[in-house]
Design a protein that fits this description.
The protein is an alpha/beta fold. Helices cover about 45% and strands about 15% of the residues. The protein has eight helices and six strands.
Length: about 170
């Protein structure tokens, strides 16, 4: 079976541009210690450095087509968002496939992630905090309902966004 697609190898997923402020190095550090499979999709100036850091349980795949990215969302165990975003679209994409999200407790994630329902938070951008978040995510894994998670994302759908923007204007 291909890496990360068979049911015996549940993998965690990051989709991000590879820049220092995205904190991908923190996730790599944590997953090196945890030993869980992590797939990172994205390109950027620090890709080479991240590849050097990554253990054999971590694959950095570079840029992928939207279609391929959707397939990774569909097959991942959970989505990891180690950075602060004003409004993170990637965690919502993951949730639209019913996947829980582990996010840094800052910025837009505070609006999109509901602790214990659509995912978990970690408080500090350090490997230990992220690793602890993964542990809690795994402990609660059976409590997440893919249907509840998917339903939640409808609140952020483009239609709703358009309606709310029109009301503001």
């Amino acid at each position: 079976a291909r890496f990360g697609t068979d049911s015996f190898h549940p993998f965690y997923l990051i989709v991000a541009r590879l820049f220092p402020h995205k904190n991908i190095n923190i996730a790599i550090d944590a997953f090196n210690k945890l030993g869980h499979e992590l797939i990172i999709i994205g390109d950027g100036p620090i890709k080479k450095d991240l590849k050097k850091m990554a253990g054999k349980n971590i694959k950095i795949l570079g840029h992928k087509t939207d279609e391929k990215v959707m397939n990774y969302y569909r097959n991942c165990k959970a989505f990891i968002m180690p950075q602060e975003e004003d409004f993170g679209l990637t965690p919502l994409e993951a949730m639209s496939f019913g996947k829980p999200v582990l996010a840094l407790r800052k910025g837009g994630a505070l609006e999109t992630v509901i602790e214990g329902v659509t995912g978990e938070f970690f408080d500090d951008p350090i490997p230990e905090a992220l690793a602890d978040g993964v542990r809690r995510l795994n402990e609660n894994y059976n409590n997440y309902s893919p249907l509840v998670i998917q339903k939640w994302t409808e609140k952020f759908s483009r239609e709703r966004f358009k309606e709310e923007m029109l009301e503001l204007v």
